[in-house]
Structures are given as structure tokens and as C-alpha cells.
Amino acid sequence: MNQNMPTQLVIGCFIALSCAPWWVYSQNGDNRTLVNMTLVRNASVLGAYCLDGSLPAYHLDRGFGAGARNWLLQFEGGGWCNDIPSCLERAKTHRGSTRFMNKLEVFSGILSNNASLNPDFYNWNRVKLRYCDGASFAGDAKFDNGTSLLYFRGQRIWRAIIQDLLPKGLGQARKALLSGCSAGGLASFLHCDNLTNYLPKNTSVKCLSDAGFFLDERDISLNHSMRSFYESLISLHGVEQNLDKSCTGFRYYPAQCFFPQYALKYIRTPFFVLNSAYDVYQFHHILVPPSADPKGHWYHCKLNPAACNAAQIRILQGFRKDMLLALSFFYRHSRRGGMFINSCFAHCQSESQETWFAADSPRVNNKSRSTKSYHRFSPPSLSLRESISRRLKHTFQNSNWTVSSRP
């Protein structure tokens, strides 16, 4: 591994993670942060609506002290819809309407306001952008057949929320980190550069995607199931017009620019990729979608990776290899970016306290040869939060990005 490369790849942590609960444990017991929902009242001026026509929303927890002028914007995740029936169903749930969303949202992990649980961002202005459009905040279309009406207005929702936050302090931000998980992590790729257009030129802007690096990969039946899914989504939601023009102008199939592996090289803003090479969602829906396993040969393997047979393990390892290959250009050529790729069976690691920063959260140690390049910059036995914070500080040091030390 080239020791002069500023972007370092971390591989390790071969463990299985179960779904984490929403509550946060601390030495003082239950220490949850509940944040009220804010509806974007002026969204209708921009024609920014959720799938069902309801107003978009976000949750804002104000920063304080040294973090009062720093902002962390977190895209909510939650899958996609790619046809009229699935979008109509989605519009009847919290994934397509603010009418069905909880009005109070728990802020944990990277969104926590507890200095001992989230030392780097606890005193920043932290915002969760609620997800209700079904296309990673990227569409701009409408469906109306006289009976049913659906708004595919993710791009306008993004703009409406940002414009609502600007006079609340975002317009005077010193530092801004745009982040997201899953479909929200994909939104971080899609909107990273656009955020800089709204902020002062002297604002230090960075982006982070957690579990958003979805691969353009063949499934076990050799079909491009995910590519086909995205193509229908892009067509329905009118996404292509909002994709990076540098990317779409270069590729024979412009819709491929919805995949981060093709779009990442064109992002100019410093970017950090957090992902598992054995991402559970991609394992279940890209590599082995139900359509590719009608007889259920992978059923037990999906439930428990320890139950996978030798052939299935080889296929999983091949998927991991393909993900690292897809990131190789970024690894070799990025001068202001970074990545943390582990091998946990997980999906989204920054929003849960158990994986972000806790006593028993996944840790990196120096037992694996593949992690030695990482330890040139930080000591062994670090939590995920500590590892990423040190990597952010290292890879973004030329951009005057500093990460506060743990109190």
C-alpha cells in the first residue's frame, strides 16, 4: 500500500451486528434527546411537497458554545419507490407523508447532544432532514391521472429546507457537514456540491455518506436488478435532470450517475465514505434479491452469516472485492477525501449510539495486517467515532477542518 496516499482504506471488524435500539445508554441511565419537528411552511411557494402533498419537515437541535456556528445536516434514509403502486403505498406511510411521521425524533449517535457520547458534534446545530419523496431528495416531477396524485419533488424539498434554515443561522455557518444514512447517504453524494452554492465562500463544507455507496452490481442470477430498479425510479421521479452534468455528459447511460461509484469522481467538495463491504441491505437486495433466489437457498445465510456455506462465502467475498474495486479510483486519486470501510454485517453505523461511540461499539485494532496503514495516524483499539474523527482531521487538514478532542 502506498504510504504517501492521503486517503487510507481500513478493512477489518469481521463481526455481525444486530439492529440497534433507538434509545441511548449512558452512565446516568436513559439519556435520550427528543427534538421537535418543524414543518417548512413556505415550501408550497417552491412546489415542494411530500409524495402525498403534505409539507416537508426537519428537526433542528440548536448548537451552543464553540459549535454555535457549525452545522451538521443529516439526510434521513428509508429506501425508495420506483413505480406508481409502490409510491402510492409509500404515500400512506411516514416514508411518504409528514402526516404520519413522529413529531418528536430521537437524536443519537452522530446527532447526540451529549459531549461524552458525541464529542465532536454535540454542540453543533444538528438537523435531520425528513425523507418523504422516495428518491433520495433528487426528483422533480408529478403524477396525476385524475384519480391519483403523487408529487415527486425531492429536489425542491432539499431546496426548501435549506432556504428555511439559512436565516436561522445556516447562512452564517463557519463549518458544515452534510451527512446521511442509506438512501440519505446516497443523497449526500447527490447534493454535496450543491450545498456549497447556498453558503458563504469562506464556509468549510465537508460531506459524509454512511451506508450510501450502493453498487451497480449483478445479482447471483447475473441480472442487474439494482440498475433496473434505479432506471425505473429515475424515469418516474424525473431525477436525470438533477444528476451531475459532468457525470451524465460522460457516461453512455446517464442514469448510472445515480450510483455513487460513477458520481464520486466528479464531486469537488471533500468527501468521506463510511460503508461496510458486507453491507446488509446490499447483501439482501442487490446481491441476493428475492427475485434471484426464488427457492430460498440463501434464506439461512441471510438470517445469519455464520450459516453461509463455502460457496456463499466466496460470493460474499467477491462482493466485498467489487466494492473495494469500485472505490479504488477515489482511494488512489482523492487528495481531500477519506474512507472507512469495515467488514461488519451492518447497515448505517453513525446514527446508532451502539455503533457510533459506546463501550461495546465496533473497534479497530492492530491485529490485522490490512489495518497497518490506518495505524500510522491513530492508535489501536479505537471506536468507530474516534476512528472517523481522526481520519477526518487527517484527510481534511489542508481544508482547515479541525475536530474537537474528547472531553
Automatic annotation (TrEMBL):
<dbReference type="GO" id="GO:0016787">
    <property type="term" value="F:hydrolase activity"/>
</dbReference>
<comment type="similarity">
    <text>Belongs to the pectinacetylesterase family.</text>
</comment>
<keyword id="KW-0964">Secreted</keyword>
<comment type="function">
    <text>Hydrolyzes acetyl esters in homogalacturonan regions of pectin. In type I primary cell wall, galacturonic acid residues of pectin can be acetylated at the O-2 and O-3 positions. Decreasing the degree of acetylation of pectin gels in vitro alters their physical properties.</text>
</comment>
<keyword id="KW-0732">Signal</keyword>
<keyword id="KW-0134">Cell wall</keyword>
<dbReference type="InterPro" id="IPR004963">
    <property type="entry name" value="PAE/NOTUM"/>
</dbReference>
<keyword id="KW-0378">Hydrolase</keyword>
<keyword id="KW-0961">Cell wall biogenesis/degradation</keyword>
<dbReference type="Pfam" id="PF03283">
    <property type="entry name" value="PAE"/>
</dbReference>
<dbReference type="GO" id="GO:0071555">
    <property type="term" value="P:cell wall organization"/>
</dbReference>
<protein>
    <recommendedName>
        <fullName>Pectin acetylesterase</fullName>
        <ecNumber>3.1.1.-</ecNumber>
    </recommendedName>
</protein>
<feature type="signal peptide">
    <location>
        <begin position="1"/>
        <end position="26"/>
    </location>
</feature>
